[in-house]
Amino acid sequence: MNTVTLLVVEDEAVILVDIESALEDAGFAVISAYNGAQALTLLESEGEKIVGLVTDIRVGPGPNGWEIAHKARELNPDIPIVYMSGDSARDWPVEGVPNSLMIPKPFATAQVVTAISSLLNKGAG
């Protein structure tokens, strides 16, 4: 069985560690980025192995989560995307890409696992 690799973009270390742990416990491999610039670099260098994206919207200076998702879709038009946000959820209908989900903060990490798993399963069907 091939390991499914996800890119997680989150600038808050405590939240990132929690999400990484939940996704790894669910059997995913996780590549993490702490800001938009790092995320874009990872998408370019590791893009062929990244099959899903979980991103916060506000990730410090540089590209935001909306821009990261658009770049991910340029590289892989079918990549499932889960957005997380404390205050940008209202912008998802306009800024978000198709085949994506928005999880408003605060959330349980199980919601992230369920959301990305659902999108990945939908694409496999």
- Reported CATH architecture: 3-Layer(aba) Sandwich
Report the C-alpha radius of gyration, rounded.
13 Å
> Strand share of the residues?
15-25%
CATH topology: the name is Rossmann fold
Spans of at least 5 consecutive residues with low confidence: none
Helix and strand sequence: EHEHEHEHEH
Overall geometry: globular
Number of helices: 5
**Considering DSSP H and I runs of 4 or more, what fraction of the residues is helical?**
40-55%
Question: How would you summarize this macromolecular structure in one to three sentences?
Answer:
By secondary structure, this protein is an alpha/beta fold. Helices cover 44% and strands 22% of the residues.
How do the strands and helices of this protein lay out in sequence?
Blueprint: E1 5-9, H1 13-25, E2 29-33, H2 36-46, E3 50-56, H3 65-75, E4 81-85, H4 92-95, E5 100-104, H5 109-124
Parallel strand pairs: 1-2, 1-3, 3-4, 4-5
Helix pairs in contact: 1-5, 2-3
Report on the structure:
The chain is globular, with a radius of gyration of 13 Å. 44% of the residues lie in helices and 22% in strands. It is α/β, with parallel strands linked by helices. It is built from 5 helices and 5 strands, in the order βαβαβαβαβα. The longest helix has 16 residues. It has one domain: Rossmann fold (3-Layer(aba) Sandwich). The mean pLDDT is 94.
Structure keywords:
Rossmann fold; five-stranded parallel beta sheet; alpha/beta
